[in-house]
Amino acid sequence: DAGVIQSPRHEVTEMGQEVTLRCKPISGHDYLFWYRQTMMRGLELLIYFNNNVPIDDSGMPEDRFSAKMPNASFSTLKIQPSEPRDSAVYFCASRSSQGIEAFFGQGTRLTVV
Amino acid sequence: AQSVTQLDSHVSVSEGTPVLLRCNYSSSYSPSLFWYVQHPNKGLQLLLKYTSAATLVKGINGFEAEFKKSETSFHLTKPSAHMSDAAEYFCVVSDSYWGKLQFGAGTQVVVTP
């Protein structure tokens, strides 16, 4: 298996623009997590899904952030409009209901200027 | 509620000497615990996991960790550091149902020749 695949790896955008981050979980995994990593706050859980259904989005910082999982093999995290303080590395992770460990993608480094 | 505290933000060791990274956890039930490693500009890789089986857990690259319930600790050790061990290490606790991961603040390991 190729592991969790995230795209793009790097994104630079101007303040006010819409940004869409993408994630393909490991095939067969039924949990998907979105995390954000910053120097100030470390790794924070934003939202997670089970069987494509959002379970807890209490970590989503503002209404500007939204996430979807239209099918078992694809999820998006969207920021609209983006702001410089959204600059961070965003990680997607997936887990099987048969296991306890999560597998992480390589991350998307977002820079909003 | 659950949380982890990594007691050292930075650890510097000489190549060939032992490494000790300290972690204390707080959990209202029997936790699942993990250590993840992050090399510069890379994703998060699972080093090892504890799931209430053996209290001494062996992981990849010669790392191991010991779960001590009485001390609520899960310290990570390696007998002999290698230059490639230079990275950031995260102690992580998981709720047993959804698999939400709560990350510690991380310990940056520097290995000197």
Distance between the termini of chain B: 41 Å
Low-confidence stretches of chain B: none
The secondary structure category of chain B is: mainly beta
Biggest chain contact:
A-B, 22 and 23 residues
Task: Determine Rg of chain B (CA atoms, Å).
Answer: 13 Å
- Unreliable segments of 5+ consecutive residues of chain A: none
Task: Decide which structural class fits the backbone of chain A.
Answer: mainly beta
Radius of gyration of chain A: 13 Å
Please write the string of helix (H) and strand (E) elements of chain B.
Answer: EEEEEEEEEEEE
Overall pLDDT of chain B = 92
Could you estimate the helical fraction of the residues of chain A in percent? under 10%
- Give the total of beta strands of chain B: 12
Number of strands of chain A: 11
What is the general shape of chain A? globular
| Oligomer category | heterodimer
Give helix % range of chain B: under 10%
Query: How would you characterize the largest beta sheet of chain A?
Result: 7 strands, mixed
Percent strand of chain A: over 45%
Order of helices and strands of chain A: EEEEEEEEEEE
Main sheet properties of chain B:
6 strands, mixed
Instruction: Provide the residue-averaged pLDDT of chain A.
Output: 95
Descriptive account of the structure:
The complex is a heterodimer of chains A (about 110) and B (about 110). Chain A is mainly beta. Chain A has no helices and eleven strands. The mean pLDDT of chain A is about 95. Chain B has about 110 residues and is mainly beta. Chain B is built from no helices and twelve strands. In chain B, a hairpin with a 5-residue loop joins strand 7 (about 55-60) and strand 8 (about 65-70). The interface of A and B includes residues 35, 42 and 101 of A.
